[in-house]
Amino acid sequence: MLPPELPPLPALTCAEGELIDRYLDVVDLLGRINPAQHGDTYRGLRAAQALVSKAAQLRDALALMHQRGETELHAATLGRALRVLDGERRTARVTVPPQSDS
After folding, report:
1. Burial track 2-19 (b if 16+ CB lie within 10 A, e otherwise)
2. pLDDT digit string, tens, across residues 50-102
3. What pTM was computed for the model?
4. How far is it, in rounded angstroms, from Cα 76 to Cα 12?
5. Rounded Cα distance, 98 and 80, in Å
6. Would you call 58 exposed, middle or buried from its count of C-beta atoms within 10 A (0-12, 13-18, 19+)?
7. What domain of life does the UniProt record list for this protein's source (predicted)?
8. Which of 18, 31, 34, 66 could be bridged to 61 by S-S, CB 3.0 to 4.6 A?
Protein backbone atom coordinates (compact mmCIF):
# COMPACT_ATOMS: atom_id res chain seq x y z
CA MET A 1 0.00 0.00 0.00
CA LEU A 2 1.33 3.43 -0.97
CA PRO A 3 1.52 6.30 1.53
CA PRO A 4 -1.08 9.03 1.11
CA GLU A 5 -0.25 11.53 -1.58
CA LEU A 6 0.92 14.92 -0.35
CA PRO A 7 -0.96 17.99 -1.49
CA PRO A 8 0.78 19.74 -4.37
CA LEU A 9 3.12 22.61 -3.70
CA PRO A 10 1.63 25.99 -4.56
CA ALA A 11 3.01 27.74 -7.62
CA LEU A 12 6.25 29.45 -6.62
CA THR A 13 8.81 31.42 -8.54
CA CYS A 14 12.24 29.82 -8.69
CA ALA A 15 13.47 32.43 -6.21
CA GLU A 16 10.60 31.67 -3.80
CA GLY A 17 11.36 27.95 -4.05
CA GLU A 18 15.01 28.66 -3.28
CA LEU A 19 13.99 30.83 -0.31
CA ILE A 20 11.80 28.05 1.12
CA ASP A 21 14.52 25.43 0.63
CA ARG A 22 17.25 27.54 2.22
CA TYR A 23 14.95 28.60 5.09
CA LEU A 24 14.19 24.96 5.90
CA ASP A 25 17.90 24.11 5.72
CA VAL A 26 18.59 26.79 8.36
CA VAL A 27 15.64 25.66 10.50
CA ASP A 28 16.84 22.04 10.43
CA LEU A 29 20.30 23.11 11.58
CA LEU A 30 18.91 25.35 14.33
CA GLY A 31 16.83 22.39 15.51
CA ARG A 32 20.02 20.32 15.81
CA ILE A 33 21.72 23.11 17.76
CA ASN A 34 18.77 23.75 20.11
CA PRO A 35 20.10 23.18 23.66
CA ALA A 36 16.59 22.25 24.83
CA GLN A 37 16.65 19.18 22.55
CA HIS A 38 18.47 15.94 23.26
CA GLY A 39 21.79 15.52 21.53
CA ASP A 40 25.49 15.90 22.05
CA THR A 41 27.78 18.89 21.73
CA TYR A 42 29.58 17.51 18.68
CA ARG A 43 26.32 17.27 16.76
CA GLY A 44 25.50 20.85 17.74
CA LEU A 45 28.98 22.02 16.78
CA ARG A 46 28.74 20.43 13.34
CA ALA A 47 25.31 21.99 12.80
CA ALA A 48 26.59 25.41 13.91
CA GLN A 49 29.50 25.16 11.47
CA ALA A 50 27.14 24.29 8.62
CA LEU A 51 24.76 27.07 9.64
CA VAL A 52 27.21 29.72 8.48
CA SER A 53 27.08 28.67 4.82
CA LYS A 54 23.35 27.89 4.89
CA ALA A 55 22.58 31.32 6.34
CA ALA A 56 24.64 32.90 3.55
CA GLN A 57 22.64 30.90 0.99
CA LEU A 58 19.40 32.10 2.59
CA ARG A 59 20.67 35.68 2.44
CA ASP A 60 21.58 35.23 -1.22
CA ALA A 61 18.11 33.85 -2.04
CA LEU A 62 16.48 36.88 -0.43
CA ALA A 63 18.91 39.28 -2.14
CA LEU A 64 18.14 37.71 -5.53
CA MET A 65 14.41 38.10 -4.94
CA HIS A 66 14.91 41.75 -4.02
CA GLN A 67 17.13 42.42 -7.05
CA ARG A 68 14.53 40.87 -9.35
CA GLY A 69 11.83 43.15 -7.99
CA GLU A 70 10.17 40.47 -5.86
CA THR A 71 9.91 42.82 -2.91
CA GLU A 72 6.89 41.25 -1.20
CA LEU A 73 6.73 37.88 0.55
CA HIS A 74 3.38 36.23 -0.13
CA ALA A 75 2.91 34.74 3.33
CA ALA A 76 -0.18 32.67 2.55
CA THR A 77 1.44 30.96 -0.44
CA LEU A 78 4.81 30.50 1.23
CA GLY A 79 3.10 29.22 4.38
CA ARG A 80 1.25 26.58 2.32
CA ALA A 81 4.55 25.52 0.78
CA LEU A 82 6.14 25.23 4.23
CA ARG A 83 3.25 23.07 5.48
CA VAL A 84 3.53 20.74 2.45
CA LEU A 85 7.27 20.39 3.14
CA ASP A 86 6.68 19.48 6.81
CA GLY A 87 7.70 22.92 8.02
CA GLU A 88 5.51 22.78 11.11
CA ARG A 89 7.32 19.73 12.50
CA ARG A 90 10.71 21.03 11.43
CA THR A 91 10.26 24.47 13.00
CA ALA A 92 8.89 22.94 16.21
CA ARG A 93 12.37 21.56 16.91
CA VAL A 94 13.66 25.14 17.20
CA THR A 95 11.31 26.11 20.03
CA VAL A 96 11.65 25.39 23.73
CA PRO A 97 9.48 22.40 24.65
CA PRO A 98 6.78 22.95 27.25
CA GLN A 99 7.85 22.44 30.85
CA SER A 100 6.96 19.02 32.20
CA ASP A 101 5.32 18.65 35.61
CA SER A 102 7.91 16.15 36.85
Report:
1. eeeeeeeeeebeebbebb
2. 999 999 999 999 999 999 999 999 999 999 999 999 999 999 999 998 887 65
3. 0.87
4. 12
5. 26
6. buried
7. Bacteria
8. 18
